[in-house]
Amino acid sequence: MESDWERIQRRARVRGRMLRAAAGEVPAELVLKNAAYVNVFSNELGHGDIALEAGHIVGIGSYTGRRAYDCAGRIVLPALIDGHIHLESALVTPWEFVRAVLPHGTGAVVADPHEIANVMGTDGIEYLLQATEGLPVDVYFMLPSCVPATAMEASGARLDARAIDPLYRHPRVLGLGEVMDFMGVVRGDLDLLEKLEAAHHRGRPVDGHAPDLPQPALSAYVAAGIGSDHECHDLEDALAKLRLGQTILIREGTAARNLEALLPLLSPPYCDRCLFCTDDKHPNDLLDRGHMDHIVRRAISLGADPILAVKAATYNAARHFSLRGRGAVAPGYRGDLVLIDNFTDFTVEQVWRGGVPVLTPEGVPEGAPPGIDPRLEGGARRTFHVGVLSPADFSGGGWLPVIGMVAGEITTVPMGRSDRIDPARDILKAAVVERHRHTGAIGLGFLKGYGLKEGAVATYVSHDANNIIVVGTSEAEMAAAANRVIALKGGIVVWRGDRAEAEVALPIAGIMSDQALPVVNEQLERAKARAHGLGVRRGIDPFMTLSFMAIPVIPSLRLTTGGVFDVTAQRLL
Amino acid sequence: MESDWERIQRRARVRGRMLRAAAGEVPAELVLKNAAYVNVFSNELGHGDIALEAGHIVGIGSYTGRRAYDCAGRIVLPALIDGHIHLESALVTPWEFVRAVLPHGTGAVVADPHEIANVMGTDGIEYLLQATEGLPVDVYFMLPSCVPATAMEASGARLDARAIDPLYRHPRVLGLGEVMDFMGVVRGDLDLLEKLEAAHHRGRPVDGHAPDLPQPALSAYVAAGIGSDHECHDLEDALAKLRLGQTILIREGTAARNLEALLPLLSPPYCDRCLFCTDDKHPNDLLDRGHMDHIVRRAISLGADPILAVKAATYNAARHFSLRGRGAVAPGYRGDLVLIDNFTDFTVEQVWRGGVPVLTPEGVPEGAPPGIDPRLEGGARRTFHVGVLSPADFSGGGWLPVIGMVAGEITTVPMGRSDRIDPARDILKAAVVERHRHTGAIGLGFLKGYGLKEGAVATYVSHDANNIIVVGTSEAEMAAAANRVIALKGGIVVWRGDRAEAEVALPIAGIMSDQALPVVNEQLERAKARAHGLGVRRGIDPFMTLSFMAIPVIPSLRLTTGGVFDVTAQRLL
Fold first, then answer.
1. Which of B63, B148, B206, B474 is in Cβ range 3.0-4.6 Å of B153 for a Cys bridge?
2. What share of chain B is helix, strand, coil (3-state, %, to 5)?
3. What is the ipTM of this complex?
4. pTM over 0.90
């Protein structure tokens, strides 16, 4: 085992080699000739040869190398960085995710394993740490701060401050993930404050999540040491937070897209206080639009300065998370680089990682996923602890509240009460089935605005407790759909009559597939089409929108395992 | 002894108190009412009440407090930060230095104890760490990287990578100080690279010092992971370094003043890549001009945006050195604040430290200096290890090189050779006497441009090896002056005939006085006046300029204990 000092000495020798190449005394391993490159320090396009040695950029100027790549004036960027993502939303393993985003120029992502932690606790975090080890995109982690997201949620795990603390020792764990229980912070909940102080004690960053939190509560939230927010959907909210010192993660993902509204932040004096994130990327969005390249391309198309947009997607993220040696094209930085054709098309032509090109002629990275501890792998396949359901489990309840969906929004409104399913009036039965601990808890309510005319739709609930949510036109079909999800050990099921019309199996922790991304995408798109075929309104994502109905932190009504919850009043109805 | 977790829990409870005040549920300890304040995040002047609790800012808006201070619209700034200073240059103890700068709004300085380390090694660093413990200005340290500064210097200590390494454990040690042996880096000297890698291994910043280093050597220097430079005296050099990723410390001190030349850096897109430092502040400069307030005032008077100038003096420094909770007026930041009247006069009216006002009505901070380990204190008073000198020690040597001083510069030019003193032609004898290790080494040469007509001037040599430098019109007076420095255990002596006409005793490590700053200043000014009285040219600082003559890193000729050294050719003449 190499001691610290032996490692320092070894690195000093490597550095010596780098410096000889930098000084031009020996040819560099690789030189990217005739490059235009984004200089994130002077906010301009620089020009020159980029010399690489021992995995790092060592010089920019006039160089010759043992190998050369002619950039022919095209543009070299630092590899792109996603500042906040829940990998689980891609429904595939990290390996599949990385294979999808690497050709789009992503070099690193900062993941919050909130979903899998809600199912498997620290084992879930450990699972993702192992599943991301040695991948060609660096996956950093922020520890989930709110498992369960609120006291209202029946999650598979409950992680207090001491439970997550040992995980800070992992070299890819950066800090504390989005503190979504903002009211808990403002109230001063002690366990939450201990999580925050533990992060501060270790000098780690803490991510925030506090949409539209007004003053003075916002001051309190920021005074707790929460350094960022990615939930800003309008400029006013973003500026209020920016002025108080928070870094704004401009989110442009699948479920929420705030780039256009926040575009003014990409100009001085705000641009250095912002970076980009996706939060959630679904399979079709990853395949159709790409990843961080899509955000930068879109920002530029909306009028942002290309240099500042690239900087937000690279250096600003690296600086915010103290990712040393990342996010710039400059001597001493890692040779994680992306070549694009031009700022308008923003087509990624090659990606280097540690100075090595990683795309094959087909544009696909090579390699294999890392092995995972059999105990964790086995545990991830055994996360459903719930008995067979019957129609009676979904019946009765008397006059229950009706949750009104709002077109194009994830907020809801109260729409009175109902005592029966009435598809003609778009009154559907909805249930959240506790599935982690055999509690038998099933919360019932009604849903209006979804549009289903026949059958039932059941899905894992990604946000946040990952119980089963099922919506149907009959209790029998609801039970059948939910039972099929359980049989799959997790997944999405569109049910009609006595059979599944479409399904997506998600056997890893009940939230991720073990199939390739294009396969999962095809299954999912077929299921969506079938759900729409059964009446689900166009413009609604049949599964994602459903999953939002169970998050008890978004106003005004949500469905929990205890029944319909009034988020504004903070009580069960 | 409080465990980590007990500390986290205690802090969580304190944080809870802060948040209740932030949320306006209880009155804050202190509210600065009606403040204009510099918002370093949005680069604008904000307005509101600033609420403080438990030593921290907790909210900005509308607040009532148990105590209130009416700012009446005047301007609140974060406490100012000096990004690089050698405290030893003030010739007084840190306590005296702090008493001088605190009324000028300084909240923190980043010190490089290079001088005392050259005398006392790690004991010298430890001495300054102890002498700065608990002071009302936070003194952080960068470990001196080049002791001795070059292989040419006969210093009192030789600190290799392993010798300085344990000091990183001290909570106020931030990183590795200015790597002035830039040629050693470019050459790849292994001990120097080990120092760099050790700092990188610990995630610590490394300061640079590489005036006018051309490409590709500059690329190599930066590729070594050296993140800043404070030696830029023109814009071209600064921009070359900034483009390669270095942070530029704009220096405006006593010996070197680069602010005017570098003023364009205080505008976009460069302003966030810059901060301020003084490098060296001498007693009269501290007393006459102040400290960081002087730099900001001057920057504004030269046309800089006041907000950006304040930001360079606060937030940019805190961010560069990862000084958490410093450098901004925002919730969660420390209550280290400065009240000024306006941006033009920039008069500091009050200073708060941890939310407590620290200036008495007379404007002087109260308190007492920290105690120092008697072993270190005793060691600091016994640093001269050299016998009594005689005129013969300074005689002979034959035809020696003449070092030509350049008016207004610290560079020198070769001016031929001489075999004798000739005050009429301004040819003076100069000597550097090794004083650390009884080696008996005395380097001899001649000096032209100093102007002394009678007597001798002897001084400690602040930069870098702190040997004795003496210049005289006769060998007898040179010996007498040097002997008096030795008797004082360090200091500055102006000698004529058989007596000291003026002297400053510097008994702490031979480089610092134990007297109050105004006393030292008076002694020093009297000595300067006497030196000028004996002929030293106006426009020359008789002692400081002399000390520069012994730094073997500034072109072209320097005097060392081995004789005259050609810096350009890197050889003794």
1. B148
2. 30, 25, 40
3. 0.93
4. yes
